Every structure is written in structure tokens, then in C-alpha cells.
């Protein structure tokens, strides 16, 4: 354990937080007015700590009691990163709004020269000035109920809705009765989803996240998490009792963070992933969930499903010094190159085709 100036900031391993502190974390977050994103709950940080020994939490005290919780991972040479960076879809500090805190003071207390983020939550004013770029995170609002959402979808994207509904009917006729389970507890279904997703990453030329042991272990661990603010939810679409599409995500009482969707390529002509997402929207609305957060990253299915978008930020908070300079040299040229490509659609499309071609070559096809 380490402490900041005057003992105001205490840095601990997540498992060292006591029950009272965890309750305060939840209370501060609930009163913040921000969406109840499960990635911002203590359960997600505790789960990451189970697989990442570098996980830490800075507890900031004000007036004698904890007023903020800042989860992070600490690397070598003072380089820090958001908790679960690479898979966490919402990042930042959980703090009382009246707390006066400076980012440099926080980083110094954490012995960090840099804190990197790639999905910084909107409204995180302490860190947003360190953002190098912003991205839209797409959302589906079902707060008024699924019927209202479907009605709006029919108006916004009539062809998209009709085509998806027709494919679901065709799937039922040609592959067997279609059945959907919102909260599936069969571990075999989770293994199947992870196998599909790994194959999809390789097929599209992307890094296979599930080839990293800490990520696959984290997902299996969260599948058994059942806290009200952060529960693992596995949703599966079946045809004649055969799984054809699945999704694993995290939910709170009001938000479902969509995380790992995939499907059986054998059934691709039926667009089972789209069918699955529409079924998920209906089940989520029935369960009292108001928002499905589809996350950042452009995708055709997100364009069809979304009702809006919110910004998330990528970048780093830095404390002047050698560590900050090393971070800039290591990260900024690559980030700027990615931004250059992203802002040029033709070049981005070429890059996408190149990734897919590389994936086919690695797969021997």
C-alpha cells in the first residue's frame, strides 16, 4: 500500500478494499448521474484483479472519508493503464462531483508518469484534456419499451427491419424452430461463443483476444458474477436446439454493455447476429434495462440497430518527465497513423481488405 500527499490518497490492491469502501464506491457511482455502466462498478475491477496482478485502486479521501476510487493497472517505469485496457468499454474515476482533485496529484500518488485509456467515459473532466481522439459509442435506447423501439426502427430503417425479420422466419423454416435464451447458463454455450469469436478474429485478420489467457479467464470468471451492478449475461439464439449465434456481455440494472457477439458462419445467410441483437433488445427491455451499449467501432449492424451515440475518448493523462516522453514516442506516431487512415474512407476500406486477406492466409485459405 502507498499513500499520497498527507495521506489523502491511498493506493491498494482491489482485494484490500473493505466492504464499506466497496459500498461507498457503488453509492458514489449511483449518485453521479452517469449511465450505470457495469465496467465502472467495483465488481469489474475485482474481476480484473483476479487475472491481472498489476491491478490497483487509488482511494481519495476528502473530509475524512473516501470520496473517489480510481482503478488502474500499473506497469513498468511508471506506465499505467485503464483497468482491463483492451477489453474494458468504459473507463475513468468514480468520484464525488464536489471533489477537488488534480490529475497530476493523482498520478504522483499512484507513482505513475502516464495513465492510458481507450474508452474514457464522457464527462470525465479530470482526464479528457489528455484525450488524443474521440469516437462514437453506439447505443440502443429501449427505455420506452421494445415496441416503441421497434416502431422507431421500422420508420428509420424499414428495409433493414423487414429483411432481418424475413431472415429469422427463413431460419425457422429451413433450420428448425428458432429459440432465444437471454441469460443462458450452459458453459458449453460460452465455450462455443469463444471459439466462434476466435475464428472470427483470425478470419478478419485481427488479433485473437481469446488467445490471451487473461482475457479468456476474465470472461469465464465474469460469467459467474451476479452482482446487481455488474452481472455476466450470455445470450444464445438456437435453431432446432443448435446454437447459431451468441453474445456475452455485462449488465447493470439499467445498462447492457454489449461485449463479445459472434455466430456460426454456416448460418451467415440468415444474419443470425442481427436476429440475436433484436431478441436481446426485446429481452433487455422486458428486464427493465433501458440502454444497450454497442460500444465504439464502426460496424454495419450497429448503424442498423442504433438509436444514438455517445462519445468516448482515447489518449493518456501524463505527468511531465521522462516517462511521458517515452509514452509519446511509443504511442503517438501509431495513433496519428490510425487517425489518418480512419479519416480517409477509401484508405480505410483498403486496410480492411488487407486485414481480411492476411487472415485468410494465416488460416490457410
Automatic annotation (TrEMBL):
The keyword Transferase applies. GO terms for molecular function: acyltransferase activity. Residues 161-302 form the BioF2-like acetyltransferase domain. Keywords: Acyltransferase, Transferase. Coiled coil: none annotated. The keyword Transferase applies. It comes from the Bacteria. Its EC number is 2.3.1.-. This is GNAT family N-acetyltransferase. Transmembrane segments: none annotated.
Amino acid at each position: 500500500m502507498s499513500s499520497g500527499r498527507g495521506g489523502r490518497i491511498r493506493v491498494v490492491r482491489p482485494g484490500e478494499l473493505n466492504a464499506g469502501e466497496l459500498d461507498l464506491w457503488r453509492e458514489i457511482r449511483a449518485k453521479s448521474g452517469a449511465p450505470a455502466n457495469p465496467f465502472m462498478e467495483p465488481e469489474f475491477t475485482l474481476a480484473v484483479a483476479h487475472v491481472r496482478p498489476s491491478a490497483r485502486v487509488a482511494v481519495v479521501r476528502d473530509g475524512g472519508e473516501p470520496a473517489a476510487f480510481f482503478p488502474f493497472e500499473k506497469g513498468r517505469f511508471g506506465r499505467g493503464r485503464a483497468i482491463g485496457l483492451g477489453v474494458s468499454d468504459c473507463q475513468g474515476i468514480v468520484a464525488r462531483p464536489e471533489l477537488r482533485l488534480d490529475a497530476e496529484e493523482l498520478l504522483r500518488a499512484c507513482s505513475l508518469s502516464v495513465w492510458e485509456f481507450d474508452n474514457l467515459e464522457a464527462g470525465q473532466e479530470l482526464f479528457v484534456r489528455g484525450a488524443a481522439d474521440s469516437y462514437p459509442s453506439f447505443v440502443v435506447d429501449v427505455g420506452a419499451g421494445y415496441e416503441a423501439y421497434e416502431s422507431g426502427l421500422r420508420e428509420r430503417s424499414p428495409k433493414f427491419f423487414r429483411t432481418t425479420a424475413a431472415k429469422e422466419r427463413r431460419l425457422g423454416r429451413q433450420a428448425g424452430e428458432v429459440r432465444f435464451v437471454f441469460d443462458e447458463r450452459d458453459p458449453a454455450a460460452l465455450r462455443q461463443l469463444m471459439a466462434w469469436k476466435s475464428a472470427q478474429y483470425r478470419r478478419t485478420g485481427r488479433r485473437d483476444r481469446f488467445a490471451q489467457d487473461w482475457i479468456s479467464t476474465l470472461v469465464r470468471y465474469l460469467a459467474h458474477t451476479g452482482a446487481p451492478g455488474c452481472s455476466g449475461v450470455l445470450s444464445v439464439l438456437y435453431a432446432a436446439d443448435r446454437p447459431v449465434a451468441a453474445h456475452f456481455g455485462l449488465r447493470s440494472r439499467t445498462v447492457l454493455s454489449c461485449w463479445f457477439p459472434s455466430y456460426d458462419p454456416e448460418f451467415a445467410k440468415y444474419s443470425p447476429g442481427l436476429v440475436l441483437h433484436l431478441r436481446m433488445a426485446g429481452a433487455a427491455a422486458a428486464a427493465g434495462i433501458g440502454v444497450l451499449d454497442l460500444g465504439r467501432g464502426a460496424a454495419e449492424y450497429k448503424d442498423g440497430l442504433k438509436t444514438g451515440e455517445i462519445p468516448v475518448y482515447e489518449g493518456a493523462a501524463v505527468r511531465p518527465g521522462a516517462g511521458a516522453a517515452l509514452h509519446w514516442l511509443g504511442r503517438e506516431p501509431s495513433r496519428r497513423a490510425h487517425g489518418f487512415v480512419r479519416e480517409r474512407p477509401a484508405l480505410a476500406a483498403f486496410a480492411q481488405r488487407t486485414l481480411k486477406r492476411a487472415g485468410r492466409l494465416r488460416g490457410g485459405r
